[in-house]
Amino acid sequence: MKRYTIIDSPLGKITLQSNQLGLTGVWFEVNTTLPSELGERDDSDALLLAAKTQLEEYFLGIRNQFDLPLAAVGTPFQMKIWQALTTIPFGETWSYQDLANAIGNPKAVRAVGLANGKNPISVIVPCHRVIGKNGKLTGYAGGVERKAALLKLEQGQ
After folding, report:
1. Span 38-63, pLDDT tens digits
2. Residue 54 bears catalytic tag
3. Are residues 143 and 96 part of one domain?
4. 133: buried, middle or exposed (CB in 10 Å: 19+, 13-18, 0-12)?
5. How far apart are CA 89 and CA 152, in angstroms?
6. How many domains is the chain partitioned into structurally?
7. Mind listing the pLDDT tens digit for each residue in 75-125?
């Protein structure tokens, strides 16, 4: 059974979703991947409360790693990309090429980009840390302005 809650953040409202296995989604209020069916609203669920606390600490600049069970659903390739995203160090950025290299498939840059864009657990699985090879910010399901703000936060600005 899926549960969800909605929290406030410095970058707008965030919807958190979980199931019995872990966190399944973290979406900003304006997000191209927000599912139509979220489940039952539960503002007292222990996992959702833990996610809320850890995100609050992140936005306050006192947390740079998350410690939550994750249960995103995707293809095996997407899951591989999402796992690789969690290895990008806090405050750093990788290009899509770097991400493709990290999974041992340097020719899969386009597929890596598509999988990155389908990441349902934003911020916690840091897809915002992936930028274009030329150093420019590329799309972000929660909006490029939020991507820029997350990167600035992580770089101490």
Report:
1. 899 999 999 999 999 999 999 999 99
2. no
3. yes
4. exposed
5. 14
6. 2
7. 999 999 999 999 999 999 999 999 999 999 999 999 999 999 999 999 999
| DSSP 8-state symbol, 75 | -
For residue 156, what are its two tokens? 């101490």
The reply to whether 24 and 92 lie within a common domain is no
Catalytic residue, chosen from 127, 130, 131, 150, is 127
Q: What does the alpha-carbon distance between residue 20 and residue 127 come to, in Å, rounded to a whole number?
A: 24
Written as one letter, the residue type at 51 is A
Give the type of residue at 113. G
Q: Tell me: do 49 and 101 sit in the same domain.
A: no
Torsion-angle region of 143 (φ positive above 0: left; ψ -120 to 50: alpha; else: beta)? left
91 and 31 within one domain? no
- Mean per-residue pLDDT over the chain, rounded: 93
Q: Which of 51, 55, 19, 57 is nearest to 35 (CA)?
A: 19
What is the domain extent for residue 79? 74-153
8-15 contacts at long range (C-beta below 8 A, 24 or more positions apart): 9/55, 9/56, 9/59, 10/59, 10/149, 11/59, 11/142, 11/146, 11/149, 11/150, 12/146, 14/55, 14/123
